[in-house]
Design a protein that fits this description.
Layout: E1 3-9, H1 17-30, E2 36-42, H2 44-47, H3 55-72, E3 79-83, H4 88-98, H5 103-108, H6 110-118, H7 120-123, H8 132-135, H9 137-146, E4 152-155, H10 160-177, E5 185-188, H11 217-225, H12 246-254, H13 259-267, H14 273-300, H15 302-330
Parallel strand pairs: 1-2, 2-3, 4-5
Amino acid sequence: MKKTVLTGIRPTGNLHFGHYFGACQNWLKLQEDPNYEFYLEIADIQALTDNFDNPDKVRYNVREITIDMLSIGIDPKKVHLFIQSKIPEIAELTVIYSNLVTMARLYRNPTVKTEIMQKKALFGHEGESVTYGFVGYPVSQAADITAFDGQLIPVGEDQLPLIEQCREIVRKFNAIYGETLKEPEPLLSKNPRIKGLDGGEKMGKSLGNGIYLADDDETIYKKVMSAVTDPEKIHKNDPANPDVCMVYYYHKLIGSHNLENICKECKHGQRGCVNCKKELVTNMLEFLKPIHEKRAYYEANPDVVDELLIKGTREAREKAMKVMKQVRHAIKIDYFEND
């Protein structure tokens, strides 16, 4: 039997290179594996946990991020692409699971603790204004996973505490109500975090250091020209260390032509940073060309995007309804279901 793979992305902005090289490339491989049934969730409810005051942003980005995923090659014939909020069974499971998790356990989750401190403007300096919905989003995430009998969950190491919390919920549910739910396993990505243009260890939407797959030519030019290079290289012909240069980092990332010579010329002071950046722009635009062409098609045909989302969400809900029927039976709330 096929194993169920489930992953998701929050619609808070377009996909950037960090998403593409850190996660999406792995998704593209997984969708081609006949051993997997792949569910890909657009997690709009989870996006609202820290964007509750800006629902227009979330709504707009549901379609934007769908277009991004279709443009990079996510195939709706091989992947169940769906919207979280359109699966009411997820909300029902979230409420049920909330009885199985203490507030103290949620606050101990290191991923939650880190994210609360990163959102001081929203939740206060010490997290004193954090909302129930945000602290409890690991419970919602457990519902996301188990609603589709998720067995393999592609994640980075920073997300492992969330998967472990889901596993705890499943074990407790099964211990109380009988073996009903599948316990998921993390599927660790082999790709490292993608650095930002500023040299930061992580490219992020809120950090302003990323290149987005939807960026136009002019935007990419401006961003690349601002990229951090070797601070020890003062003059054009000074030798430099490509290993600390974000321009060379991105040349490697996208597989630029003539990579060996780029490195050699940089080390020997035969390559100026401005020309190197311009070459990167050219190579990056070539890399993004097929993605931009597909994006243009979907932007011009929003009905096609909507139809694919409707179809994928319908398929996902059929699965969630079957799981929910088993859960209701296990906890003795399956009133009148056989009538």
